[in-house]
Amino acid sequence: MEHEIRPDGGESLRDVWHRLAKFQKSLDKIRDSAVVVSHGGTLGLLLARLLRGSVQTARGFRFENASVTEVIRRPDGTWQLLRYADTSHLHEVHDDLGIKA
User: Fold this and answer.
1) Closest CA relative to residue 42, chosen from 12, 72, 67, 66
2) 15 φ, ψ (degrees, to nearest 5)
3) Please, what is the angle between helix 13-29 and helix 40-50, to 10°?
4) Digits of tens for pLDDT over the chain (101 positions)?
5) Domain containing 22: what range?
6) What is the CATH number of the domain that holds 27?
């Protein structure tokens, strides 16, 4: 399976998936807001974990540079996706500077 492929000196998607388990547990304990910044592949895996998906689910997530994805923890402890890969803030900056995107 392609999520098991491990390049020389690197990690497979499954390796990163398992490494994120500890990080997810720390997110589950946070009561305040938090910001997570990472590479798109890792963010896709984390989002899949939070939404109770799988390694395969993560492949469906794509993030533009500087995009914002927002999740909240529901009272039952599950996570809800509020905003996904939003880049509208970048368009506003371009408009303010007179830049055509």
Assistant:
1) 12
2) -60, -45
3) 60
4) 776 767 678 888 999 999 999 999 999 898 889 999 999 999 999 999 999 999 999 999 999 999 999 999 999 999 999 999 999 988 766 666 666 65
5) 2-97
6) 3.40.50.1240
Question: How far apart are the C-alpha atoms of 92 and 42, rounded to whole Å?
Answer: 27
Instruction: Give first-to-last CA distance, the chain, whole Å.
Output: 39
3-class secondary-structure state, position 86? strand
Q: Supply the DSSP symbol for 8.
A: T
Structure tokens at 100: 């055509």
Specify the amino acid at residue 67.
S
Find tokens 């491990």 and name the residue.
6
* Alpha-carbon distance values, 81 to 4, 36, 50, 85, 92 (Å): 27, 14, 9, 11, 23
pLDDT at position 78: 94
For the chain, the domain total comes to 1
Rounded to whole angstroms, the Cα distance separating 88 from 79 reads: 23
Structural contact between residues 55 and 3, judged by C-beta atoms closer than 8 angstroms: yes
Q: Which amino acid is at 74?
A: R
